[in-house]
Write a structure and sequence with these properties.
By secondary structure, the chain is of the alpha/beta class. The chain has a domain at 42-170 and 217-253 and 277-288: Rossmann fold. The chain is built from 11 helices and 10 strands. The chain has helices spanning 31-36, 39-47, 49-64, 81-88, 100-110, 145-154, 171-189, 199-206, 220-229, 244-249, 254-269, and strands at 9-10, 71-75, 92-97, 114-116, 129-135, 155-166, 216-217, 232-240, 275-282, 297-299. The strands form 2 sheets. The chain has an 8-stranded mixed sheet with strand order 4-3-2-5-6-9-8-10, sandwiched between helices. Strands 1-7 form a two-stranded antiparallel ribbon. Helix 5 links the parallel strand 3 and strand 4. The longest helix has 19 residues, at 171-189.
Length: 300
């Protein structure tokens, strides 16, 4: 569903009872997804680290334009790839994630300070951090308000919040609509015998948009409006593309790899990136935007 006032898009399939699944209000994972996000996923992501590390360093460049290195907390850190890169750049960085498997993996392989737990109920020090990052996290929250408010309490005066999330205005969203319609038509014509999504659908999923578990879908406008409501002022926002080599390397199927390349090429041709990367500062006027909407740039 889409809010007519702010363009915020959210899924309505998740029953309200799932709000208590975990403290961060993430939807429950089917068994096959738990396996996907398990050891094999971590091994694969670790092996591909060199392909997405430049993106992580780009986030540090955004921070460097505002301040020198200080204390940093990565919420939803997985196995700690961003924590590692941040520490290499002089930040006193640590990470927290609800996945004990990811934390154990990262602690062993990367040797960086990570902790398993929920950011909302862990003994994190209020006002201690200069920067908090949530990379590919906010789209999983059924209710992001408590998390954003808590992050505000963890940041010191003039602290920054860095957010990365899929862009609902991307061309992949258009493709999803087309291919979803095609799949529905095939299912109707075959009287339900067609139950396999077309390859392009998988390409769309692997661009981290409508994966199962993504319940919130942001545009630049709706993301800024939500953060302003929780006391954050937009400093800088970019639209950018995911690394195509990384996306392709994550998949073994030749059909899916081709679909990803076609979708990515079309998105670049139309200059419709798939990711939002935004830097916010704690606002002196809590819950009231202190500046007009900034223009969002494409990093094509």
């Amino acid at each position: 569903m889409r809010c007519a006032e702010c363009s915020f898009v959210f899924c309505v399939e998740w029953p309200l009872k799932h709000l208590d699944h975990v403290q961060l209000a993430m939807p429950p994972m089917p068994e096959q997804q738990q396996e996907y996000w398990g050891t094999q996923f971590l091994e694969n992501e670790y092996a591909l680290e060199a392909l997405y590390e430049p993106e992580l360093r780009g986030y540090l460049d955004m921070l460097a334009r505002q301040r020198s290195p200080g204390t940093l907390l990565d919420v939803g850190c997985s196995f700690g790839a961003f924590v590692k890169v941040a520490r290499q750049s002089g930040w006193d960085a640590e990470g927290i994630d609800t996945s004990a498997a990811a934390i154990a993996f990262g602690t062993e392989r990367l040797g960086v300070p990570l902790r398993a737990g929920d950011a909302l109920c862990s003994d994190l020090r209020p006002g201690y951090y200069d920067v908090v990052t949530i990379l590919d996290v906010i789209e999983h929250q059924l209710d992001p308000g408590p998390l954003l408010s808590h992050i505000g309490s963890l940041l010191g005066p003039g602290g920054f919040l860095l957010v990365e999330t899929p862009d609902h205005d991307s061309f992949y969203n258009v493709l999803y609509g087309w291919y979803n319609s095609a799949n529905n038509m095939l299912a109707s014509l075959t009287r339900g015998r067609w139950d396999r999504p077309l390859p392009m659908y998988y390409a769309y999923e692997h661009e981290n948009l409508y994966q199962s578990g993504h319940v919130l879908h942001f545009t630049a406008h709706s993301l800024e409006k939500l953060l302003a409501r929780h006391g954050f002022r937009l400093v800088e926002m970019h639209k950018q593309f995911s690394n195509i080599d990384y996306l392709v390397a994550r998949n073994r199927s030749a059909a899916v790899r081709l679909a990803i390349r076609v979708a990515h090429a079309a998105s670049r041709l139309l200059r419709r990136p798939n990711k939002l990367v935004a830097l916010f500062e704690v606002s002196a006027e809590s819950a009231i935007p202190s500046a007009p909407v900034r223009q969002t740039r494409n990093l094509a």
